[in-house]
Amino acid sequence: MSQVNISNVVVLDNPSPFNNPFQFEITFECLEHLNDDLEWKIIYVSSAESEDHDQVLDSVLVGPVPPGKHMFVFQAPSPDIEKIPVADAVGVTVVLLTCSYKSREFIRVGYYVNNDYTDPEMKENPPATPDFSRLQRNVLATAPRVTKFPIDWGDRNNSESENNIDHNDKMEVEDAESNQIQAPPPQQSVPPTLGIGHDSNSLNLSEPIAS
């Protein structure tokens, strides 16, 4: 059973210019005192073709964590445009929010991100070289894909931990088997019924998510 549950994530400053930082307001609950820090990461999938282009935008350690509810804002810089293939600059990609304990990842929340020009003429005739200063980033905040991994939360070494994981606590996957999340067709819209939150940038992850 997981000792940490993410109850809500709000995507701040969304939509926003491509070069603005990513900002996530994260609310999570800790069931027991954790002696070690939780490591949170924001990862930008620069290309669906290869994980080699994935960028860790930032990581932060939070802890030690006492039992109870906690909230913080995780901000990370925009991706390095030099590491984004030209063919993948405009269109749908993915940003990942992950959390690990003792270097063991136990949850991954993936969001589709649509990068497009706001100018109608540039939409119709995009430049051969992407102009990132004219791109708008829109995170589909109400349609995350959540993957939960069972880990051992104790202080045993890795080999012991593997043997002591409760295998009845199977990995839970919400349409995300890896970083390579398949993007929806460009015309496909996200039904407004997906997700429960305060607004279009908020989702209560403690509630069931439609797959």
Automatic annotation (TrEMBL):
Stretches assigned to coiled coil: none
Compartment annotation: Nucleus
Alphabetized PANTHER family for the sequence: ANTI-SILENCING PROTEIN 1 (PTHR12040), HISTONE CHAPERONE ASF1 (PTHR12040:SF0)
SUPFAM superfamilies: ASF1-like (SSF101546)
Source taxon at top rank: Eukaryota
Protein name stated in the entry: ASF1B
GO CC term (a single one): chromatin
Region named Disordered: 150-211
Record family assignment: Belongs to the ASF1 family.
Keywords: Chaperone, Nucleus, Transcription, Transcription regulation
Biased composition (Basic and acidic residues): 153-173
GO terms for biological process, alphabetical: DNA replication-dependent chromatin assembly
UniProt GO molecular function: histone binding
Pfam families to which the protein is assigned, alphabetical: ASF1_hist_chap (PF04729)
